Amino acid sequence: MDGAHDATLEFSYADERRARIVAESVRVEVGEIDDARSAAAVEREGRVVSVRVDAADIVALRAGTNSWLRLVSVAETVAADAAERPSADRETDPHEGSREA
After folding, report:
1. pLDDT (0 to 100) of residue 87
2. Are 71 and 34 in contact (CB under 8 A)?
3. Sheet of 48-55: strands edge to edge?
4. Contact 83, 37 (CB under 8 A)
5. CATH fold group of domain 5-85
6. φ, ψ of residue 97 in degrees (nearest 5)
7. SS3 11
8. Main-chain phi, psi angles of 96, to 5 degrees
């Protein structure tokens, strides 16, 4: 969509790994939450993730921008929480112990 209104949101991270995790997490939503009035694209260049929101009108732009801000915020929170967990927790099989004998 090449709407009459657009906004580009840029998010900078301490390292490329965190930027990649956030970008890949939110990129899966592109096309899923688009509608007839707005669409978005996600790109990453180094440590910077950019989300461009195109919209047919200013109300749709505000709604789309708010949606993408929430999605990025959730991805950042999950990435930060995962980074703080001890590596042993990340290597444990999540299904271990839940299997019945």
Report:
1. 65
2. no
3. 5-12, 48-55, 38-45
4. no
5. TATA-Binding Protein (3.30.310)
6. 85, -10
7. strand
8. -65, 135
| pLDDT at residue number 91 | 55
8 Å CB contact between 25 and 42: no
Cβ–Cβ under 8 Å, residues 19 and 48: yes
Residue 56: count of CB within 10 angstroms of its CB: 17
Q: Give the pLDDT mean for 74-90.
A: 80
Could you tell me the two tokens for 87? 């590596």
**Conformational region of residue 50, where left means phi above 0, alpha means psi within -120 to 50, and beta covers everything else:** beta
Q: 20-79: per-residue pLDDT in tens?
A: 999 999 999 999 988 889 999 999 999 999 999 999 999 999 999 999 999 999 999 999
Q: Pseudo-torsion of CA 20, 25, 31, 32, nearest 10°?
A: 180
What ranges do the domains of the chain cover?
Answer: 5-85
